[in-house]
Specification:
By secondary structure, the chain is mainly α. It is built from 7 helices and 3 strands; from the N terminus they run αβααβααβαα. The protein has helices at 19-24, 51-55, 62-70, 77-84, 88-100, 111-114, 117-129, and strands spanning 46-49, 75-76, 104-107. It has a 3-stranded antiparallel beta sheet with strand order 2-1-3. It is elongated and about 45 Å long. The protein starts with 18 loop residues before the first helix and ends in a 9-residue tail after the last helix.
Length: 138
């Protein structure tokens, strides 16, 4: 149909329309102020709502509202995209817009630390130290 909804009886499952993300980002395909080194915001970037952002939820567009509301607690860009079922680049663009407006605080991880093998080793060791809940008997 003209409004994007499928006609009655038609299977609604199928490829997502590229028009909707294009409209949400006003046609932008990359953030206005890219992250360090000219690259897009990494997927592990942590985002948290500011007090101003939470106070102004009612004034935000649908997607911006959902992003700020989801970020009452720190979330990664990837977590936000998965939770809200939005394209990753849409979340990157909107998160950068919200950061510029003072509605989100963005914490980009230190790229040197994320490429440090000792950090990865500690993460693996920590995961191995977690008890396997499948083997625990009540």
């Amino acid at each position: 149909m003209a409004d994007g909804t499928p006609p009655p009886g038609e299977n609604p499952v199928g490829p997502a329309s590229a028009v909707r993300p294009f409209l949400v980002t006003a046609g932008r395909v990359a953030p206005g102020a890219p992250g360090p080194g000219g690259a897009a915001m990494p997927v592990e970037t942590q985002v948290v709502a500011t007090a101003d952002g939470l106070a102004e939820l009612a004034q935000l567009s649908f997607e911006q509202h959902d992003i700020v509301a989801a970020c009452r607690r720190p979330q990664s860009i990837a977590e936000i995209a998965a939770r809200l079922r939005l394209h990753l680049n849409v979340v990157r663009i909107l998160a950068e817009d919200l950061r510029e407006e003072g509605r989100l605080t963005v914490h980009v991880p230190d790229s040197a630390a994320t490429h440090d093998a000792s950090v990865l080793r500690r993460v693996i060791d920590g995961l191995r130290a977690i008890p396997d809940s499948g083997k625990v008997h009540p």
